[in-house]
Amino acid sequence: MKHAGFTLLFLLLCSVAAAEGVWRVKGHAFSNVHAWQKGTDVRVSGRVSGGPVRTPFQAVIHVQNDEGKTHRVTIRKTAFSGQGETFEGGFRATKRSRQWQIIQIEVLGADPAEIQRQKTQSKTLPHVAAQYPSVPGDMPESGPPQCFPIKTKTSGEVSSVLFSSMRPVCVTVRNRRSGRLVLMKNVLPHDLANTSLPCGEYSVKIVGDGFVSQKDVSISGQNQVIDLN
C-alpha cells in the first residue's frame, strides 16, 4: 500500500507543470498561467484581466519543456472588454515531457489608444495617394506567422480543402500556371475550418516562425486535406 502511494505521488509530480506568477504585458495581467501534458496533448490555461479593450484579442504564450524545446500557443478571443476572462489552448507534442514552464507571453497588435491617436493625427495631415496596394500580394519571408486573409473569386468545380498544420503558419495559394493569388489565410494547429477552392494545380507557400517552405499540390474531388508540416 505504501509503495502504491509513492508511485501515485511520483506520477502526479511527472504530469504537473509549475504555475507561474502574474505576467504584465501591454497593460494586461496574466495570472495562474500554467501548462500540463496528458498523453501527447499539451494544454496551456490561465486568466487575463485589465488593460485596454481589444477586438480581437490575440496573445502568444511560449512554453518550454525539461529538454529545453520551446513551443508557441496562440490564444484568440473575438473581443476582450478588460474584465477578467479565462483562456485555454494547446498543441500535440511528439513525446511526453516531465515538466512544462511558461517562458514568455506576447500580446499581438498595437495598443488601441495608440491606434486611435494615429487615426486622429492622420485626419489633420494632407491626404497622399499610396504608391503601393493597400493589400499585400504575398507574405513576409520572416517574422511572426500572421497574414492578411484574402480569398479571390473563382469559378469551376469546387473542392472542400482542410489545411493541416502542427504549428501556426500563414499560407499563400497561387494558381501554378498563371501565378494568380487565390487564397491567403492563417492556419492554427487543430484548425478544422474547411476552405472552398476550385479544383486545379496550385503552388502553396508556407510561412511560420523562422521558416519558409513551398510545395505544389493538386486539388481534385469534393474533399481534400493538405498537410503543411
UniProtKB/TrEMBL annotation:
Tell me where the signal peptide lies. 1-19
Which keywords accompany this UniProt record? Signal
Species: Desulfomicrobium baculatum (strain DSM 4028 / VKM B-1378 / X) (Desulfovibrio baculatus)
List the protein's name: PEGA domain-containing protein
